[in-house]
Design a protein that fits this description.
Length: 227
């Protein structure tokens, strides 16, 4: 599904050039659930920004389903991104003053759906994450774990080909983190959602099917975990 070939990334300014991804070669197949680990500053965010079609400025090749999508215009690329990848962040990035339903519905509206076409899809995805009874609640009325479930529902609503989760349990206690990871595993094993997860927490790794470790912009380890 995803193929990075000899990818190098530099952050350049007038005085210096910082080499943050070094000769990355990476193939990701549909149905994988990958943990990316590495110290702060090792290049994890840079890598997932590239994988999520956010960053086009790099050397080497990124093929998605055999195509070099990053050559598309910004407008086409943002449309592709909206239909192809779902993002989940540590801080949830939800709209505080909107209801659960409205938060989850938003990417559908961006994708061209009309208000009267969204109800069934939003209800189905809320059911999947176990929030059927919370649709009309405001975000403020939910716990941190429930807010992360809303963010996952929002990431899933356009049926993306893969999910990128950047420290999705970073703001949650260990019990809630476990619940969130179990949901990711269900999505991965039952619905074949491909998941790429950045984490600092080694406890999250055994839930994944593969571990990629990064140091100083290089992949230093790439190993299979559960099958
Ligand atoms: N926009 C930028 N301009 C210049 N340098 C940057 C930029 N973004 C990141 N960097 C540098 O690139 C390197 C990799 O950063 P990156 O954010 O990818 O690391 P990370 O592994 O995600 O770190 P963390 O775990 O702290 O989020 C760091 O040295 C960082 O300072």
């Amino acid at each position: 599904m995803i193929s990075l070939v000899n990818v190098n990334k530099y952050y350049k300014n007038d005085e210096e050039s910082l080499h943050v991804l070094k000769n990355i070669n990476l193939a990701i197949a549909p149905g994988e659930m990958i943990a990316i680990m590495g110290p702060s500053g090792s290049g994890k965010s840079t890598l997932i920004n590239l994988l999520g079609f956010i960053d086009k400025q790099f050397e080497g090749q990124y093929l998605f389903e055999g195509k070099a999508l990053l050559t598309s215009s910004d407008e086409i690329l943002s449309k592709i991104r909206n239909q192809t990848v779902g993002f989940v962040f540590q801080n949830f990035s939800l709209i505080e003053n909107n209801t659960v339903f409205e938060n989850v519905e938003l990417p559908l509206l961006y994708n061209g759906y009309k208000f009267h076409q969204t109800e069934e899809k939003v209800r189905a995805v809320l059911k999947k994450v176990g929030l059927s009874d919370k649709a009309d609640k405001h975000l403020k009325q939910l716990s941190g774990g429930q807010q992360q479930l809303v963010a996952i529902a929002r990431a899933l609503i356009n049926q993306p080909k893969f999910l990128i989760a950047d420290e999705p349990t970073g703001a949650l206690d260990s019990h809630t983190s476990e619940e969130i990871m179990k949901l990711f595993v269900d999505l991965n094993t039952q619905d074949q959602v491909t998941i790429i997860l950045v984490t600092h927490n080694p406890d999250m790794v055994p839930y994944c099917s593969r571990l990629i470790s990064i140091r100083d912009g290089e992949i230093i380890e790439d190993k299979a975990l559960r099958q």
